[in-house]
Amino acid sequence: MSGNDFFALTPLLLLAGSSVLIMLLIAINSSHRVIQLSSLLLFIVAFASLFYIQKLLPYNIEPLLIVDGFSVFIMGLIIFSSLVVNILSYIYFEEKEESPKEYYVLLFLCTLGACVLAVSKHFISLFLGLEILTVGLYALIAYLRVRHHNVEAGIKYLVLAAFSSAFLLFGMALIYLQTGSMEFSMIARSLTSLQSLPPLFLTGLGMVLVGVGFKLAVVPFHMWTADVYQGAPAPVTAFIATASKGGVFAVLFRFFIMIDGFRFKVVILILICIAIASMLIGNLLAVQQKNVKRILAYSSIAHLGYLLVAFIPGSMMSIKAVSFYLMAYFITTLTAFGIVTILSNKEKDAEEIESYKALFWQHPVLACVFSTALLSLAGIPLTVGFVGKFYILAAGLQAGFWITALILVFSSVIGLYYYLRIITMMFAGQKSILSEGKKANPIFYMISVIALSVLTLLIIWFGVYPSTVMSFIEYFRLK
Amino acid sequence: MILIYTIVILMGGGLLAFLLGQWNKSLPRWIALCTVSVGFVVLVSFWIERYRAVNIHLSNTWMIDYRHDWIPSFGISFHLAIDGLSLLLLVLTFFLGILAVLCSWNEVKERAGFYHFNLLWILAGISGVFMAMDLFLFYFFWEIMLIPMYFLIGIWGSENRVYAACKFFIFTQASGLLMLLAIIGLYFIHGRNTGIYTFNYFELLGTAISPNVAFWLMMGFMIAFVVKLPIVPFHTWLPDAHSEAPTAGSLILAGLLLKTGAYGILRFVLPLFPEASRVFAPWAMLFGVIGIIYGAILAYSQTDLKRLVAYTSVSHMGFVILGIFAFNELALQGVVMQLVTHAISTGALFIMAGMLKERLHTRDINQMGGLWAQMPQMGAIAMLLAMASLGLPGLGNFIAEFLILLGTFKANVLLTVIAAIGLVFSAIYSLRIVQKVFLGPSERSYQVRDFSFREIVIMAALTLSIVWLGLYPQPVINTAKPMIMKLEHIFSAENKNMEKENPSVTPLNMHKYLVNNKE
Q1: CB-CB under 8 Å, B170 with A428
Q2: Could you give the 3-state DSSP secondary structure of residue A445?
Q3: Phi-psi region of A217 (alpha: psi -120 to 50; beta: other; left: phi over 0)
Q4: Closest Cα of chain B to A423: distance in Å?
Q5: CB–CB contact B71 A397 (8 Å)
């Protein structure tokens, strides 16, 4: 490896180094506060380093990794969401009985895994990234180990993730058998002359899709989502919903674009089925729920379906639409889970929809933030979610995929119903049942609220004036 | 710049009211009143200033045009422009805005800041809808007005408010999203034809679209507008939303929100898809007539005063759709008049229903009766408004409905005759209001006061304008004229083309021949 290689990988190296550094800090018995602040600092440094490597792009590190505009953008989103999760974690874990310090080490490792996914262009690096991410998540999900739900969620995730990894590996092996390579561009080369996919390759691709589908929680691989979302600590849920899914989606997207999988009818057909099922079932199941975390879980299934609508055409517009929507989804989801985190108390998370009753009259700022996030998830104008949805519809309709666009519209109307239900709950009644005040750490509480307010401003700013981001993602190329 | 200011002062005033409402309860309503009044004065003076010019240059329909790039990569610009129709509706918006603030002066005691924030933002969204000349921007404003309306109904409404608010929101949002699909579809078709990807209304006019696609795109637009208007199978949100909303909410819903649907058809559906709308016209007119009769019959059978007035809206909006799809100047002028007069007369009836509810704490007309004795002023005004609603000559609604029927008679005799029967029904339900509420035996002995000074001001403004429109409607007609001439021009040119080409019969235009044969 040359010096430039190291330079291009600065963000990844920083993340890896940070986890070691935090471990050393724990060894010398630093307090929770010191560890939280130093990891915040390290996240900021890692995030800043992304700007530092800008001028090098695009940069290949054969045969495993590629650092280009798209991957830097995705890494930026992942590190940013980890940063926000990190800020929110302090007040959440400080009042719990477990020692929260190792949590930050795991957070760094998971972020590293997700970032590796974003830069990989080879099955080996894909698998490495995925395992770093998932193994970290096993521990993070079950972190509050005395709680019944947490352990259940952890076990569930462990079993299913291991299972899906096996599928993924077998699929990769079959593709390797057919094409003789594990690098995306080499696989693409061996496919160029083919008009239809060979059966062996198709089986392999199907297996890969099963594996990846589990991580993305698209229908029909979505069974674990609601339980894990509900069981995991709220900040970890935020991380699963954003960073983990974003990284996996990015690598899947890169894989399909590079092998030009959109040429093949059968692949498109499978993807359309998955997209439609995810949008409809995700939204329909959410309607029934009374638990905010579960509602957000099902809504995230639907949102992955929306993303697939933009993904399916595989055009230039798709890249932009996917990038933009991922950003919109990240910011919005972080905000929504941020509110859940802030309102949670020592005993339990603020997950019952009833506990949001009359929130607006008690905590107007938090209620406004949460309403904005929910409206953005529903795709109402003035929020970034609307522009994202517009982008997706544009990408779908440009290539003439009217069916998926219509289903998107139809299912987002269903979605509107349950988002409105939460919002209505916040404005209903007079007296909030959430306990007032008595925050153990007023300073960190304030910092969290400020962070969420900034995210809300971003939601509105990008919703009203999206040109800045659009001009940034205009020139992403994946081939 | 005046166009931007109107939106900016509404939004700014709303934010100010929200912020100051935290520590003073009466400040928000004063802020709201000032903001809306300033906007009203500015617009009226602009109207007077331009009124002369309108009549001289009939060909120049656009009064002001403001354009600024917004999202250049999609060809989206912040493009506002107004012609006579927009100006009329804008003036109406601010006029009703003032009354909306006034009529909830004492009604809203809690969370006044947030209430007025919502009120002003609805008005801002509606003003934006009437001005936007970029389809993306239009959709943007179209949706913006929904959220504050949702809050207005959902927080300050009566018992069943949450259900009504959700129903309203979901109906309008679903239809709006279909319109968004149609807008994007139109964008790409135009882009592929010309290589220019833009949402600019003026450039999208005259896009060449194959008839089949044009029909579906038009349906995308139509569905959004007819749900808002509403036309009969899509009207079910309206009685719920109207009856549960607070008085100001009902006023804005009936007076302005419904008008955005009619405005959308006039501004977008007809000019963008002239051929497709011609194909669709017989059906639209049929649904309009069904709406007139159905709305009138249902209005007669209501016992809830607000629901009753809500169904009369359904009936009156049937006239609007009937007139629009007659495609001639008389009918279109009638439509514009109907938009203005219906807003005023129905708005006044809703305000009156609100006042009655404030006094009697019920909306059930079976529990009212004999109120004239105690409230002669209100009774007299109610009589006048009922007369306006049934279309008595001398009041604005008469002019509107008469012009519409005159125009549609040229287009379709049978439907016009049925629609005219609707006027008879309207006499029945209007008189029933007066009979049940103000005349007849007194159900309970109420001790109610008549109008206060504030209420007299509100009602005087409304009744004076309805009488003015009935006696001298020329300013409205003249202001809207250039825009309507242009519309009529599109369709008369279209007529000649159709005759020349003599196109083949397809499933899509088959019924046109059937209708022609009937005549």
Answers
A1: no
A2: helix
A3: left
A4: 10
A5: no
Any domain includes B405:
yes
Whether B162 sits inside 8 A of A390 (CB atoms) is no
- DSSP letter at A95 equals T
Tokens of B195: 């290589």
Domain count, chain B: 1
Judging contacts by C-beta atoms under 8 Å, the chain B residues touching residue A361 are 111
Interface test with A, best of B77, B114, B161, B184 (most A CBs within 10 A): B184
Query: Is A138 in contact with A161 (CB distance < 8 Å)?
Result: yes
ipTM for the whole complex: 0.90
- Which position has the token pair 């859940």? A340
Interface size between A and B, measured as CB pairs under 8 A? 72
Q: Which domain holds residue B410?
A: 285-479
Sequential pLDDT tens for chain B (519 residues): 788 889 999 999 999 998 888 778 888 889 999 999 999 999 999 988 888 776 666 666 788 888 999 988 889 999 999 988 999 999 999 999 999 999 888 887 778 888 999 999 999 999 999 999 999 999 999 998 888 999 999 888 888 888 999 999 999 999 999 999 999 999 999 999 998 899 999 999 888 889 899 999 999 999 999 999 888 889 899 999 998 999 999 999 999 999 999 999 999 999 999 999 999 999 999 999 999 999 999 999 999 999 999 999 999 999 999 999 998 889 999 999 999 999 999 999 999 999 888 888 888 888 888 888 888 888 899 999 999 988 888 898 999 999 999 999 988 899 999 999 888 899 999 988 888 888 888 766 667 788 888 889 999 999 999 999 999 998 898 888 888 888 888 888 766 665 554 444 444 444 454 444 443
Asked if A380 and B170 come within 8 Å (Cβ–Cβ), the reply is: no
CB B92 within 8 A of CB B256: yes
Q: Which amino acid is at B489?
A: H
CA distance B327 to B488: 6
Please tell me which of the candidates B71, B173, B185 has its beta carbon nearest to residue A413.
Answer: B173
A229 Cβ contact list (under 8 Å, min separation 6) = A237, A240, A241, A293, A294, A296, A297, A300
Do residue B71 and residue A393 have CB atoms under 8 angstroms apart?
no
What phi and psi, each to the nearest 5 degrees, are found at residue A427? -95, -10
Task: Provide the 10 A C-beta neighbour count for residue B173.
Answer: 25
